[in-house]
Specification:
Residues 1-19 form the signal peptide. Keywords: Cell outer membrane, Membrane, Receptor, Signal, TonB box, Transmembrane, Transmembrane beta strand, Transport. The protein contains four helices and 43 strands. By secondary structure, it is mostly beta strands. It has a single domain, classed as TonB-dependent receptor, beta-barrel domain (Maltoporin, Chain A, Beta Barrel). It has a 22-stranded antiparallel beta barrel. Strand 12 (184-193) and strand 13 form a beta hairpin. It starts with a helix and ends with a strand. The relative contact order is 0.13.
Length: 754
């Protein structure tokens, strides 16, 4: 950790603590937080031994942000988004240098839960943010650090989402939003209860043409919660369906963006998701101080993808009228064994993933006296079985003037893939919180994970895929918190967590046979699981008009997995490999208060993410690569794709009881491009964005809201990768591909409460 970071955090904490001591008010510290997936308890915030953030339905209100990920980014220090897919409903969400992404091939490092159900998908632990309707979210808790209780992928932390019920969100509301990019959104939600039985239902739809070329998107969500509340037993049945058709045309060459910001490289890049999910949670209060929480679930996600891309084929050396491989010698044949015409200058990758996850958990939660001290504990077990059937085919096609690929050519049988994979995760976990004294609290937790991944080739052509892999580990954590005064508390913790290699990584881990994500799989040499060890320490405090916190953290990941790029127009051909250790460390500090009728907040996050092990990185499009496409990463080089500095500010002002104005500002420093692990090509530019929102409660039943994003119409990029633009656009030689941010945009909505 750089010395100035620690000094800055200490100085900030000391100065704020002195200011708070001058405020003669009590600290409102009791809040409801997620202490395990789907398990919530009221807890004194001063006794939590790690950084925790929680949002309520006001924070995730869709009239204030575009989607759930955007709401989390606006309100939580250390979170950033990037436009890797170029679609606002498909962002990479990054926290403390770890990622929750919808993109196959991105190393995942955050665990995401919805009503106790893990929504990281089976195939690649990806997170489909588009399948979670933000309007249905009643609360969200982010638990920082490598928390073992939250299981696989919680290397950087976990986000636990709780959706609405008829008890938490009674009433009926209907609304409509319209505005920039042709976006039209409508919804209907209704909830109610009679004290014992409750219901909540939501239906919404969104359609827009997008701000970039050929980038329409559509989404539909329906969700229901049916609840029972008894003297000893509570039941909640959650049902959800979603249908999304999103176009995310990704990064474009830097030279092309200078000509036109809305330009795309190749099209289409379409992803269609279909979700069906059901979960049942029962809470049985055994005594006044203990309860048993049982959850069972099933989740199905079907994903179709259509990706137009550049062709790596070329005219044959001895016959220019037909296509051959890159060497110009081996002819490409269609299903009838006929050579394919060289007039085809592009390819269309068509993929289908059918994923299913099912399982459940049981947690015994209670409070007792231990050694004469207050003690709270929970014991739990869970099991999650997953399966995925993946098929893909590659068709040759033609690029039109808009660089759109029409898949009107023959399929290439040699590139077809059919694979089936199953996963089985079993775990047992325990947590205990002991009040050592009126000022000291000790938290202990541990989890034992065992993961089995089995892979089978269904095409008959890739028998090297067949195999089974088992990963297991015991992960502990310990935390200590103490009250320094009535208004100031301190905490420190150590924790470990793991991430087992996913089926998509295991099927694409052979240097001798690289694959094109997400369409080719060729063999499955073993990979080691990633193990994160994290330490954190901090201070927090405040009063009725001011809250503050500051923390330092360091997380070291052993056997980290990265994608080695051997080619592809957008560096999407290669293989996964363990590259040694990486480290993410930083400082987070925030202030929140109220002054002259204005609710305001500000937060700063410093992140240093770097490689601790040197290695040879294959980066085929890097201008400094040798003849084999290799660059040498040194110890201390920064991990690409992560901003080092982030600052967030915001304020809400209510000049009258029925009118509220809000402003939010976000600053992010630049980042190195993916593929430039040696940090030789410079960073993307930093940027500052400001958003406005306004809300007018016209009558008790009518609310009108307006929102403007990127108020100053800044031209910025939030993502970069290396590629080969000349494969489609001769004359463009800059290997930098950038993900442009959206221009200024505004929306107006009306909500009726019936």
């Amino acid at each position: 950790m750089r010395p100035f970071g620690a000094c800055a955090a200490t100085a900030l904490a000391t100065s704020v603590a002195n200011a708070v001591d001058r405020v003669s008010v009590n600290l409102p510290v009791v809040t409801v937080v997620a202490v395990a997936p789907g398990l919530y308890e009221s807890r004194d915030a001063r006794t939590i031994p790690y950084d925790t953030r929680w949002l309520d339905r006001h924070d995730t209100d869709p009239t204030r942000s575009t989607g759930l990920a955007d709401a989390l980014d606006r309100d939580i220090p250390g979170i950033s988004l990037n436009a890797v897919q170029g679609n606002p409903w498909q962002p990479d969400l990054q926290y403390r240098g770890y990622t929750a992404s919808p993109l196959l091939g991105t190393p995942q490092g955050l665990a995401i839960y919805q009503d106790g159900v893990r929504v990281n998908e089976v195939f690649g632990d990806t997170v489909n943010w588009d399948l979670i309707p933000s309007r249905a979210v009643d609360g969200a808790t982010l638990s920082a650090g490598a928390s073992p209780v939250f299981g696989q992928n919680a290397l950087g932390g976990a986000i636990d989402l709780r959706t609405k019920t008829g008890f938490s969100a009674p009433g009926t509301r209907i609304g409509r939003e319209t505005g920039s990019f042709g976006r039209e959104t409508s919804f209907l939600e209704s909830g109610g209860n009679d004290g014992g039985l409750g219901y909540y239902v939501l239906g919404d739809r969104m359609d827009e043409r997008g701000w970039r070329d050929l980038s329409p998107s559509h989404a539909r969500h329906s969700l229901g919660a049916f609840s029972f509340r008894g003297d000893r037993l509570d039941l909640d049945l959650h049902l959800a369906q979603a249908r999304t058709d999103l176009t995310g045309n990704g990064a474009s060459p830097a030279e092309l963006l200078r000509q036109r910001r809305a330009a795309i490289f190749t099209a289409p890049d379409e992803t269609s998701n279909r979700l069906s999910q059901a979960s049942l949670t029962g809470t049985w209060r055994l005594t006044d101080r203990s309860s048993l929480i049982v959850t069972a679930f099933t989740r199905r996600v079907r994903t179709r993808s259509y990706n137009g891309d550049t062709s790596e084929y070329a005219a044959c050396n001895d016959d220019a009228s037909i296509l051959c491989g890159e060497d110009g010698r081996d002819a490409i044949l269609d299903a009838r064994g006929t050579p394919v015409s060289s007039r085809y200058d592009a390819i269309a990758n068509l993929g289908m993933r059918r994923q299913r996850a099912r399982g459940g958990s049981a947690v015994l939660h209670g409070a007792t006296r231990l050694f004469g001290r207050d003690n709270t504990f929970f014991l739990g077990v869970d099991e999650r079985r997953g399966s995925v059937g993946y098929t893909s085919e590659q068709r040759v096609g033609l690029l039109d003037e808009a660089r759109h690929v029409a898949a009107d050519g023959p399929a290439i049988p040699s590139e077809a893939v059919a694979v089936h994979a199953t996963t089985r995760d079993r775990a047992a976990f325990v947590s205990d919180r002991l009040r050592l004294s009126s000022d000291w609290t000790l938290d202990l937790a541990a989890r034992f994970n065992r993961t089995r991944v089995s892979i089978a080739d269904r095409s008959g052509r890739n028998r090297a895929l067949d195999g089974g892999h088992t990963f297991s580990r015991f992960n502990p954590s310990v935390g200590l918190s103490w009250l320094l005064s009535r208004r100031v508390s301190a905490f420190a913790s150590y924790s470990e967590s793991t991430r087992a290699p996913t089926p998509v990584e295991l099927t694409c881990a052979d240097e001798e046979a690289p694959c094109r994500l997400p369409n080719d799989f060729v063999s499955d040499p073993p990979l080691k699981q990633v193990v994160a060890r994290s330490v954190e320490a901090g201070l927090r405090g405040g009063g009725a008009v001011l809250h503050w916190d500051a923390s330092l953290y360091r997380s070291t990941s052993a056997h980290d997995i990265v994608f080695q790029t051997t080619g592809g127009g957008l560096s999407n051909r290669g293989f996964f490999a363990n590259v040694g250790d990486t480290r993410r460390e930083g400082v987070q500090a925030s202030l929140r208060g109220r002054w002259a009728g204005i609710d305001w907040h500000m937060a700063y996050a410093y992140l240093r993410a770097r490689f601790l092990s040197g290695f040879d990185q294959i980066s085929a499009h890097h201008p400094d690569a040798d003849a084999d496409g290799v660059v040498t990463v040194k110890r201390g080089d920064d991990i690409p794709g992560l901003p080092r500095h982030m600052l967030k500010v915001g304020a809400d002002w209510s000049p009258t009881p029925v009118v509220t104005f809000g402003i939010d500002g976000r600053f992010s420093s630049g980042q190195y491009l993916r593929g430039d692990e040696i940090n030789a090509l410079g960073k993307t530019g930093g940027y500052a964005l400001f958003d406005l929102d306004a809300h007018w409660q016209v009558t008790p039943r009518v609310q009108i809201s307006a929102r403007v994003e990127n108020l100053l119409d800044r031209r910025y990029v939030s993502f970069g990768v290396l590629g080969n633009p000349s494969s489609v656009l001769p004359g463009l030689n800059d290997p930098r591909f950038l993900g442009p941010g959206a221009p200024r945009a505004g929306w107006l909505s009306i909500t009726l409460s019936l």
